Amino acid sequence: MDLEELHQKKVINIIDEKQKWNLPIAEKDADIKDILSILSGRDHVWIVEKKGSRRLCGVVTENDVLRLLAPSRLPKYMFGKRYSISFLHGTAKKAKDIMNKHIIKCSPEDSVGDALMRMVNAGLRRLPVVENDEIIGEITTHYIIQILLGKR
Amino acid sequence: MLMEIGVALITAKLIGYLFERVRQPAVIGEILAGIVVGPFIAGKIFGMEYLSPETEGIASIGIILLLFISGLEMGIEEIKTAGKSGLLTSLFDVSIAFIFGYLVGHILGYDLITSIAIGNILVATSVGVTVRTLMEMNALHSKIGELILTVAVLDDIFGIIILSITLGKGSPLSLLIKISLFLLIFLVSLLIITRLKDIKIHIPRLILTFALSFVFIFSALANMLGLATITGAFFAGLVFSNFSYRRRINEITRQMGEIFFIPLFFVWVGASFDFYAIEDIGYLVLFFIPMAIFGKIIGCSFGAKLSGFKAREAIAVGIGMIPRMEVALVVVATEISMGIFDEKLSHQILASTILLVIITSFLSPVLLKAVYNKFKL
What we know:
The complex is a heterodimer.
Chain A: H1 3-8, H2 17-21, E1 25-27, H3 32-39, E2 44-48, E3 56-61, H4 62-69, H5 95-98, H6 112-122, E4 126-131, E5 134-140, H7 141-148
Parallel strand pairs in A: 1-2
Antiparallel strand pairs in A: 2-3, 4-5
Chain B: H1 2-21, H2 26-37, H3 42-46, H4 53-80, H5 83-107, H6 112-121, H7 127-136, H8 143-167, H9 172-195, H10 206-224, H11 229-240, H12 246-271, H13 275-278, H14 282-306, H15 311-320, H16 326-337, H17 343-375
């Protein structure tokens, strides 16, 4: 597919059914081991309110977990409680303890070009596609490359 | 000036790193770097003139970024999730620490405003030293550890609010109107920014520029309303704390601040340390440091006990709250820039606060470990 043509398409038109049912999702009260288990095969987990729900409330990425896996290194200037969250010290127990609650998302009606620009501006490699606060799909760099190469 | 800044940056980095290696706060290393590049060492040996209006300006930006980051990282959520015991303990802690500080000024015969200003310095607690100690003791996840951390965070918030109320300019009525106006603008901004989930305009770094511009305008606004600029910077951080781009803003501001502006604030603090002031601070230090330590122990222990903690646990909470660091230094620097103290007293208060920072950051871990061992917590 031509890249310029892809930019013009709406996000809803590039999400396939397989992706919808294969999203990496866990509930916010999920045990940290379940999150790590998903992350052993995927590079992020979308966090939803409760089991069976698709109401999006956070995301955990490989990068979030990397900081928790490395030996504790506190920043020079520290405020708030976020730096006290640690695997080593038993303060990271559930998904909600480590998730990022502030999610940048796109809607199914956005153009792919807009979604990609948002990813560039925010320094992200993935965006959830959200409709009525519920996650219905995702745009990732991998996914876009696959479409571009005709693999999807 | 360029040479001074270059030398200061690398000296602060190296001494700060050495302190980190021996598990001490890098901030103390940066203050010592300031003493090295300041008028008493590099000034005398190499004729370097670190203290200048330019370096003071850079230090002021460092303060604003530091407070913006603190508001951004704490967020409104921390207050909401503090719980009854956290709020109660913090309330007692902040009140008693403030009163003890005020008493220092009163006993030494300073005027009302000076005594209040000393009270303000003693309110905040260093979250960094506390977390580091609790981690070393593997007590971060304990009930005591959680309370210490919650109260340490709340103390910083209350410290900045108290500073604004007590040192705001104007009559009580006009101050009340100004604070109400400031809070109104804050709440409206918070509402708008929190609801601003999406930005359709794709101008490179627009959000970061907007956030930085907001911080400085908000700080100037606070100043225009007779409040401290740091209050504006802190509340600007709170405004962006629920924004979807918070993480990105935090990453970039931290990089800018941590690499350049914030270390140069602490270097400026160290360079402003006047060795001649040490001769005259005997009485001040004699009251200031013990009152700072006991104010926290008594206030927190009392609050924690009332929250249902056992006496020995409550004492541990009090000891965990002793350290002072970033916010105390920011408060003292702000009070000096507001012209609250005369020149001689400014040097004395600054020197006393630096000594307080150093002593409490060494003392607190030792005492906390001793209490944990003695009481088998």
